[in-house]
Specification:
191 residues; Arc Repressor Mutant, subunit A; three-stranded mixed β-sheet; 7 helices; 3 strands; mainly alpha
Length: 191
């Protein structure tokens, strides 16, 4: 997982909450995020499963009692590029995930959207969003390292976001960066 350290440092340095995190804390945030992602894998996998296909991931999520709903608002917000939450979000109180499949389809059809790498299908992109949000639903049930209580709320949010990104590529066995979806969004909506 050391291969992700530079990318995750980039994630922290570009995150809006970074201003609330002392630079010295970065050295503990990245290993913590990697550890939480692996704890998430242990929590999420059923016996014998190493990774899931996009189709079997959806079945696994639903078998854990989580409802998956679809949003079909395909018109992107005007004036700025859409945020991550326009494409997928979770509601811990309702144990529900929502995936904006129409917007994801539209994103992938944009002329500015880069060509998907070999082995990545539109279904894989859907599943990466889904896996990321699923992680947010069960993170409270994962055992945290002792250092967790010493983190500020901003640091916890950043660690959780990094963990969800790592978890999503690992649970699906996607051989790409945990920042794959972030880059896809950035490249599709250039400033």
């Amino acid at each position: 997982m050391d291969i992700y350290k530079d990318e995750l440092s980039e994630f922290i340095s570009n995150h809006p909450l970074r201003v609330f995190c002392p630079k010295t804390s970065w050295q503990i945030l990245i290993p913590m995020a990697i550890g939480l992602a692996h704890s998430g894998l242990t929590f999420a996998r059923t016996e014998g499963e190493v990774s899931y296909s996009p189709e079997s991931l959806e079945e696994r999520i639903e078998s854990s009692g989580i409802e998956i709903t679809e949003s079909t608002a395909e018109n992107f917000p005007s004036g700025s590029s859409p945020s991550w939450t326009f494409f997928a979000w979770s509601d811990p109180d309702k144990q529900m995930l929502s995936l904006n499949t129409a917007a994801i389809r539209k994103l992938l059809s944009l002329k500015t959207c880069p060509k998907l790498p070999r082995g990545i299908t539109p279904q894989t992109v859907h599943a990466l969003f889904l896996a990321h949000e699923w992680f947010h639903l069960f993170i409270e049930r994962i055992e945290k390292p002792l250092e967790w209580i010493e983190l500020s709320e901003s640091e916890r949010i950043i660690v959780e976001e990094m963990s969800a990104r790592i978890f999503s590529v690992l649970i699906l066995g996607v051989p790409h960066s945990p920042l794959f979806l972030d880059r896809l969004l950035i490249q599709s909506f250039p400033s």
